[in-house]
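Per your request, structure below.
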């Protein structure tokens, strides 16, 4: 039904176009009338965006299935990709820990990436940036799920105030990160270089590209000289992408994720206490802060461009309870201290512990005397148990956490869903991998081999689940340079020379010849 509507819609638009210029003969794409014509998923997404009332995009019950259809970034140097495939596959608890941490946010990120028509690999980037932790902070003070440095965050509109840190705000930081990546893609026209610029900076990448151009060398990611961190950055992402694309080939089991939103955003239009917002949303303070890690004080300071994030199921309750609420929304107030006032005495006057007063206001533990600064104090004296629980949750929310890299997870050999294959005459690593829904890098990883040579009679472990790797997405393009031979390229990429020739159907190469390598 969807296909017939799509075909009819496009045919109708073509017909309308023919009336616009009666002198010009109508040029029709006759495959629109071919009953066997099968539009691709990206065609449906485009049509859905333009004509959502007429045609709906493909629906997926599982978010991973939706994510897999959007992978488009080409593969690259399999040695580095294999290294990181092995790293993550040998730490399945770490991989699933990342996914569990990112579950509240992943649907939102996927949706935003899809809206912009970006490669779906981008939605996985927080897995290697912060392990999907909005409170993560690196040793160089990059913060949040997307790991923005203070200056870069400011460049992309991520505000930092005493009340709020936009780098930790999942919604604001996601928008800023995608803006950054789109800008870099516009500059380089290559997603691998755009990703490298996210880690290394666009100026550094542009300088490396210009240096190679001047030396008549290649200008793809794999060709550039760069720091080790950046050299491994894109392979890390592609390794995670490959595991998500075919987890069974790596012995990894991924928890199914529902393809539906976990949270919704709304603008409340009023300042209010964190505790009050949680009560109105009928949600624990800890959960409210998990979804709003950018708010770092007891008061949620309202601004037009800031959103309050709530669980989808709690939005209606929040709106109803807010409309009916007849108590003060704010129970904290600013207080201008006098030079020389004692924090101990101030705390006693407002019914809080001195340690609580200092914690709320980022006052050093050894400071005893005020210096005329503005601080936040309760409007009423005395804090009840729930107030103190809120302050404890806020302190935890404000605390910076190191990036979870999985380095402390003990690696172990993955329990692979595998079978055995005996190599026979005519077999190559490429055709064996294809037969079992794998790529050559995965076959090498499963068998712990350093190259792609196979011998007659050799027993190989192969995937027992022949889930095909998306067609055309496991190869990478290589442009031959002067002096290249099939043998030298095969040695560089650790593939059989016979396979390289077979993949490309070529008997000879010269500078500029485009080759595909699997």
């Amino acid at each position: 039904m969807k296909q017939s509507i799509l075909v009819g819609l496009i045919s109708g638009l073509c017909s309308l176009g023919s009336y616009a210029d009666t002198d010009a003969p109508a040029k029709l794409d006759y495959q629109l009338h071919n009953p066997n014509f099968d539009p691709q998923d990206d065609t449906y997404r485009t049509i859905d965006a333009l004509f959502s009332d007429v045609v709906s995009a493909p629906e997926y019950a599982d978010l991973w299935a939706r994510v897999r259809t959007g992978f488009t970034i080409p593969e690259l140097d399999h040695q580095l990709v294999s290294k990181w495939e092995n790293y993550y596959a040998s730490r399945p608890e770490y991989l699933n820990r990342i996914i569990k941490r990112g579950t509240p946010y992943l649907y939102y990120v996927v949706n935003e990436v899809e809206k912009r028509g970006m490669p779906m690999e981008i939605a996985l980037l927080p897995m290697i940036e912060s392990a999907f932790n909005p409170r993560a902070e690196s040793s160089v003070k990059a913060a949040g799920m997307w790991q923005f440095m203070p200056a870069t965050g400011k460049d992309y509109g991520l505000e930092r105030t005493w009340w709020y840190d936009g780098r930790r705000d999942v919604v604001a930081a996601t928008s800023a990160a995608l803006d950054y990546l789109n800008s870099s893609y516009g500059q380089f026209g290559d997603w691998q270089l755009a990703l490298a610029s996210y880690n290394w900076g666009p100026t550094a990448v542009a300088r490396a590209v210009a240096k190679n151009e001047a030396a008549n060398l290649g200008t793809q990611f794999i060709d550039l000289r760069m720091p080790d961190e950046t050299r491994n950055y894109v392979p890390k992402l592609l390794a995670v992408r490959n595991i998500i694309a075919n987890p069974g080939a790596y012995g990894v089991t991924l928890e199914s994720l529902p393809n539906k939103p976990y949270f919704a955003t709304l603008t409340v239009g009023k300042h209010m206490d964190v505790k009050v917002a949680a009560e109105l949303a009928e949600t624990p303070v800890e959960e409210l802060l998990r979804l709003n890690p950018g708010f770092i004080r007891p008061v949620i300071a309202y601004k037009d461009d800031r959103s309050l994030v709530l669980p989808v199921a709690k939005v209606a309750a929040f709106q109803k309870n807010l409309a009916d609420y007849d108590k003060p929304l704010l129970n904290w107030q600013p207080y201008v201290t006098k030079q020389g006032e004692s924090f101990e005495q101030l705390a006693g006057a407002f019914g809080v512990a001195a340690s609580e007063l200092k914690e709320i206001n980022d006052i050093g533990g050894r400071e005893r005397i005020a210096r005329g600064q503005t601080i936040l104090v309760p409007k009423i004296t005395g804090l009840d148990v729930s107030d103190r629980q809120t302050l404890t949750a806020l302190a935890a929310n404000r605390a910076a956490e190191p990036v979870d890299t999985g380095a402390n997870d003990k690696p172990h050999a993955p329990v692979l869903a595998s079978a055995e294959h005996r190599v026979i005459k005519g077999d190559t690593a490429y055709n064996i991998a294809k037969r079992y829904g794998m790529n050559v890098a995965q076959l090498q990883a499963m068998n712990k081999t350093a190259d792609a040579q196979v011998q007659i009679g050799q027993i190989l472990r192969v995937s027992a689940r022949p889930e095909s790797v998306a067609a055309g997405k496991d190869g990478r393009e290589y442009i031959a340079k002067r002096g290249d031979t099939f043998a030298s390229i095969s040695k560089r990429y650790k593939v059989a020379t016979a396979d390289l020739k077979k993949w490309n159907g070529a008997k000879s190469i010269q500078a500029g010849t485009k080759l595909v390598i699997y």
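Residues 92-115 form the longest helix (24 residues).

Regards,
D.
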